[in-house]
Amino acid sequence: MGTVAHTCNPSCLGEGGRRTASSRPTWGENVFFLVTNFLVTPAQVQGRCPEHPSVLLANCWTDEDCPEGETGTHSHGIKTGQCVVFNGTHRTCEIQSWCPVENGAVSTRPLLIQAENFTLLIKNTVTFSKFNFSKTNSLDTWDASYFKQCRYDPLSSPYCPVFRIGDLVTAAGGDFEDLALMGGAVSIRVHWDCDLDTGGSDCWPHYSFQMEERSYNFSYPGPRPRTQAGVGVYGVNGTASHWWESPGMEARSMLKLYGIRFNVLVTGQAGMFRLIPTAITVGTGAAWLDVVTFLCDLLLLYVDREAHFYWRTKYEEAKAPKVTRDLSRTKPTVTPTSPAVQMP
Q: Any signal peptide, and if so, which residues (predicted)?
């Protein structure tokens, strides 16, 4: 994303400042932050000034209500021990800090509402090294104006990698104006499910969007070093500072940034038919069937309380038939005798 939108004249930030909406690379992986709203505290210098009445324990009546050296969780500085006038209706503890302090009044409408029409180009290449296959999510085209004209639509243009920010937030179930006011987070999921038997012609990503957080000031991570005059630096806690040198002192304009954090998550799976892996899988499955059959028999025949029932069902006891003699049908046995000899 490189689009920039302007919302006011340069005088709103003091010397040389202007309000812009932009997205800059973050120090997170697969994450980017889009600034949609901010609070400006111009021309701050280091010194002593009243704390803002909205800060806890900042309001006071006497100096005893402001212990010297004390600092609160949301305080802008260190208490000096003095109770001073903030305005016609409030007295607050004096602090040592960048002055004047942030007033805490956020606009009721996002200052950078034009960011809704920004576009996001997602470039993603998936590689399945096991199958020696890789593919990008962009269509192969010779039309140089294709990516300038196409916009992602789940029905009419599901393979266009260019997303309008407003449409993306709507698809996630959010309202851009509400989300842009105080910030939030949106998840962009890119899932590849590829059947490589067709040569990868049907291998395309599927996009889904989901709201993660609402109404939260997401900080833009990064360092805040001292810079040359007039150079804006993004820092921690969602702040950006515009530094310059006033006569005899250092000064700055401080911005509290609100925006939408986009988290991009890529997942994928692929499959291809091969004879040898299929044969191994089938053989392994058949072997496991034999093992399961053996284990089931072991449990049912020797462990289960109803083992005798399974024994009778699984096995049939075979007995030898009994042999009986029928005397009526038995022939008598004749023993041959020697002929008689007559003596003379």
A: none
pTM (2 d.p.): 0.64
Contact 94, 49 (CB under 8 A): yes
197 and 272 in contact (C-beta within 8 Å)? yes
Task: Specify the pLDDT at position 341.
Answer: 47
Average the pLDDT over 164-169 and give the result: 94
* Angle made by CA atoms 320, 326, 328, in degrees to the nearest 5: 170
Predicted local distance difference test score (pLDDT) of residue 19 = 40
Burial of 280 (0-12, 13-18, 19+ CB in 10 A): exposed
Burial of 164 (0-12, 13-18, 19+ CB in 10 A): middle
Mean pLDDT of all residues belonging to the chain: 76
pLDDT digits (tens, 9 = 90+) for 226-278: 433 333 333 333 566 666 666 677 888 888 888 888 999 999 888 876 666 66
pLDDT bucket at 139, cuts 50 / 70 / 90 = confident
For residue 255, which phi and psi values (nearest 5 degrees)? Answer: -115, 130
For residues 288 and 282, the answer to whether their CB atoms sit within 8 Å is: no
Show the DSSP H helices in the chain as ranges: 146-149, 165-171, 176-182, 275-302, 307-314
- Whether the pLDDT of residue 159 is over 60: the answer is yes
Confidence (pLDDT) at 220: 44
**Cα separation, 68 vs 91, whole angstroms:** 16
Query: Which residue is associated with the tokens 């302090």?
Result: 101
- List the beta strands (DSSP E) in the chain: 5-6, 20-21, 23-25, 31-50, 78-85, 91-99, 119-121, 125-128, 133-136, 162-164, 184-195, 205-214, 232-234, 239-246, 249-271
Distance of alpha carbon 129 from alpha carbon 119, whole angstroms: 32
Outline where 162-274 has alpha helix (H).
165-171, 176-182
